[in-house]
Amino acid sequence: MPYVFLALAISSEICATVSMKYSEGFTRLLPSIVVVVGYVFSFAMLSQALKQVPVSTAYAIWSGAGTAVVAAIGFVFLGEGLNTMKVVGIALIIAGVVALNLGGASH
């Protein structure tokens, strides 16, 4: 169940971040509401996941997945440019998340 909470947190964070683009500096009401509600829900779900998932693992997955997916949305739907350095950067983020998860828990 904690990974369901984490998936909900990631999905909500992605929605809120993309909505921030459409809020036009918080001058458009509906996207601005989606940003606030999305981040509040995301943090609520992340806090539930943290009851059973180590913070280093949960935060790495939450931030890494969010970053990679938002970047992909930017490339595919928002007309943002894509180059080799951006692809390498996203690959490094994913590799870092994998490395943290393979490292296991230490005390």
Q: What does this molecule look like?
A:
The protein is mainly alpha-helical. The protein has one domain. It is 79% helix and 0% strand. Helix 1 runs parallel beside helix 3. It is flat, with a radius of gyration of 15 Å.
List its traits:
4 helices; mainly alpha; single chain; flat; 107 residues
Structural class: mainly alpha
What's the gyration radius in Å?
Answer: 15 Å
Number of strands: 0
Oligomer: single chain
Q: What's the tally of helices?
A: 4
Helix content: over 70%
What number of domains?
1
Summary, kept brief:
With 107 residues, the chain is mostly helical. The chain has 4 helices and no strands.
Fold topology:
Blueprint: H1 2-22, H2 29-49, H3 55-77, H4 84-103
Helix pairs in contact: 1-2, 1-3, 3-4
